[in-house]
Design a protein that fits this description.
homopentamer, 187 residues, four-stranded parallel beta sheet, 4 strands
Chain lengths: 187, 187, 187, 187, 187
């Protein structure tokens, strides 16, 4: 079993941790998730470090929903800086998934964005852990988590597979889709 | 006895340290508080580190009231960055409680905010130390310390229990309330 | 003899180092000052670290007068970040005393501010070194170095004793005043 | 074989990694490239560190295309800070090649900029690895990667050789041009 | 022989490295300069660290000319932060000499500023290395490198000796001037 850490916050207004776990479980059956929750994004870095150093996690997802004010943006910046530091101290990837409260017009849209971005980054975590070569196949293709992919410059937008859409088909099918995607990217 | 560190400042205009100690004592009888006071928020990081490394504190509360000017915001940013660094150097949580001088309209409102935020974060410290699983039960529920909770997206605001309100009932009762809260969150 | 480090700059337009030494000598006779001067504030961090690690200083005062331009503010920010890092690397307090060129209207006022802030922070250094419990007595009382204290919220402004004013009375008397102050704060 | 690391992102909209590899191969036949791809620029620092510490890379190229929004600029800043930290932790150069989405008017121009900057910095990597003295010959000459060089102050603009232009002539010829360039700079 | 490191960039539009070496040679005959050149200011920190740790340099001069755009200011900030980190990791002074492209009206003025600031800071390096006590004699005197000194507050501007002017007289005479300067400051 590969151990994946997930840390989220009580500050967030969407259960990002649950979405991340659900997505990971869709793609792999040999992953054990260790989850922690902290008050806010500035508490994420040390929580991630503890998951890596004391719980043996090979990779961690750090989930947060910073508020819309300048002070919130600054908190997010401080958290991000800390998350990078932890990665360098532990030689371990932490995928930061932050959804800013001012990214969407309505609460409903914000919730959808939070779920989609979380799922698509959880898929990135799966790839980094088990199929890093597939990320290289997607290099320079303008991937966007939560929003429509922008695609490579000067070409039509390339819609990304995997992530939230894939989960509609359930675990096994999703993995089949992923395999095709790998093939497409290689082609 | 579990040791909890508390550091506050002479710059602050409210005795946040006293409020933090009072709140912690309400929730637990087996906690020993070690308190230090420094001139300003930029002096907090090393003071927290000393409490962790030389006084054996398992968790620390860092309390400050940054002023309203741009230079004060910068000081707070530098302090926050330092507090995150200390956490990573010591593998120990530090809960930062900053109340900005421009968050309230009047001195009276600011004092109330300082007390409420301090107490609610002291409660977070208690949870991190003794019941971290309860924080996971609150994941994504839009908790706000000092202000009314925002609640999860697309639902009615969920008023948070514990913190300042809980203290009105005294220690034992508060713990009972907390137990119910845990049950509610699980339900 | 307790060793206190003092670092100032050739960029500053006031001899802050001299004021700091004079103030420290007023309060204690068993302190040995080790002084260094560097070109600008960005040179302060490593100079402080050398005083701590190679000269055995138990605490350091870092003195600077950043200019009024945005680039000067950025330099001050970088210096402050470095000073916090040094504290965390050495587990030693460094009291930063920065006077910004745009804090006063006239050169004369700026010089007075530089002297007063330096002296009041030198007094903080003295307290941190020899009477840290007195700082806790002043927790949340709105102390301001160089300017009139703001005092606790919702009460009349509490004028701070010690610092520049105290020095008017000489060392022994100042200490007596300080003792009274401690008593008042306790009362 | 000297090992050179290359890390790029799936966020970028141009295959910068491919351009970097192609340019490096043009200049040297004894270089082995190790390539990794991560989701975004904030994932670059730890990926670079892993290439240095686990794959034995002597130098690394970090490639990214930050978006045009303030939040994207902040991400780039955080990534850059992390990349400098990695260099200091490993005593190894990492050449950061960031192309900002708002640097060009059209997608076509942006793609050209991305290719040219990547190639010219890949050439810098080649020089740092094998001919660092040639960089000193170019000291103070206003080199710009991706755009026309600005040249030294008060003289006509000096167009830089090597980089993208050189590759038009193929590997062997390019190296001849480079040798001439070295001679010119020495003359 | 004392070893002094000098790192400059190909991005700069003035040969700051040459000016620094020339100035240092004017003041001392027992200094050996080790010079490196990197592409831009963000490459300076690790190059300085390598000079200190692998080439035995006791002090380093980091030279750069950041461009006029916000992104250039950010690069300079990141570089400065890194340079401070290197100093703290190595307990060694690095004197940063940055000349911003928007500090002067014309190319000619910018070149003069670059030369003067470089020479005056090279003189600071000489003092830090061999006569640190002379810097203390200049504490609080408003020294400015490249521009006219501002002098202490409330007094006439004090023109600084040494640096570019001193070099007009050649090495021996310059040292004599410096000796007088020291005496003046002591007087």
């Amino acid at each position: 079993m590969r151990r994946v850490g997930i840390v989220d916050t009580t500050f967030a207004r969407f259960d990002m941790g649950k979405a991340a776990i659900d997505e990971l479980m869709t793609h792999a059956t040999d992953i054990k998730v260790v989850r922690r929750t902290v008050p806010g994004v500035k508490d994420l870095p040390v929580a991630c470090k503890l998951l890596i150093e004391r719980e043996g996690c090979e990779i961690v997802v750090a989930l947060g929903m910073p508020g819309p004010e300048p002070i919130d943006k600054m908190c997010a910046h401080e958290a991000s800086t800390g998350l990078i530091q932890v990665q360098l101290m532990t030689n371990t990837h932490i995928i930061e998934v932050f959804v800013h409260a001012d990214e969407a017009e309505s609460q409903e849209e914000l919730a959808k964005l939070a779920e989609k971005r979380t799922r698509e980054h959880a898929y990135n975590v799966y790839l980094l852990l088990k199929h890093p070569e597939r990320l290289t196949e997607m290099a320079g293709t303008g991937q966007r988590q939560g929003w429509k992919d922008e695609g490579p410059l000067g070409k039509r937008d390339v819609k990304r597979k995997g992530g939230q859409d894939a989960t509609k088909h359930g675990g096994a099918e999703a993995k089949a889709v992923t395999a095709v995607e790998g093939a497409v990217h290689r082609g």
